[in-house]
Task: inverse folding
């Protein structure tokens, strides 16, 4: 991916535009710029939209679902899709014995920045009294509740295990 292309693609929470709209803009940019790799990667994300459904109960009492309309698709819906694609791609790369791929790099441009180990350690020091727990691992729930999907659970686990020693 050319450096100037990498700067035009991607999304963050502080952008004044929804992730759904940004993906549509980036697809248009890729089409106009004849960037087939970016175009294919964005289309892969968009191809997952039909998995976004809304549960319905019909008059007969039967439960079913319908596709979400474009205006019903939230940033969290799309971020969940991208996270699943990243996890899948990392599994594929692990089997291929590769570190990264253009596809993985492109997907990560649309994910929010993950909390670093230093940020997690600092938050734990400032907000959690580990002496109140029998085992530091019992604080895992509180840490993950604070950071949510912005923290890697394995990293939090390593930090808490290190504090327990």
Result:
């Amino acid at each position: 991916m050319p450096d100037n292309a990498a700067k035009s693609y991607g999304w963050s929470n502080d952008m004044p535009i929804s992730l759904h709209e940004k993906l549509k803009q980036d697809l248009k940019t890729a089409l106009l710029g004849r960037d087939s790799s970016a175009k294919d990667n964005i289309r892969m994300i968009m191809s997952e939209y039909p998995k976004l459904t809304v549960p319905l109960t019909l008059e007969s009492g039967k439960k079913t679902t319908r596709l979400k309309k474009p205006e019903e698709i939230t940033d969290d819906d799309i971020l969940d899709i991208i996270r699943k694609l990243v996890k899948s791609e990392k599994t594929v790369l692990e089997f291929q014995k590769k570190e990264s791929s253009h596809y993985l790099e492109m997907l990560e441009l649309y994910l929010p920045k993950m909390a670093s180990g230093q940020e997690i350690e600092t938050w734990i020091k400032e907000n959690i009294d580990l002496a109140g727990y029998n085992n530091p691992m019992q604080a895992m729930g509180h840490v993950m509740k604070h950071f949510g999907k912005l923290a890697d659970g394995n990293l939090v686990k390593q930090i808490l295990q290190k504090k327990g020693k």
Notes: The longest strand covers residues 53-57. The radius of gyration is 20 Å. Residues 3-108 form one domain. Residues 75-96 form the longest helix (22 residues).
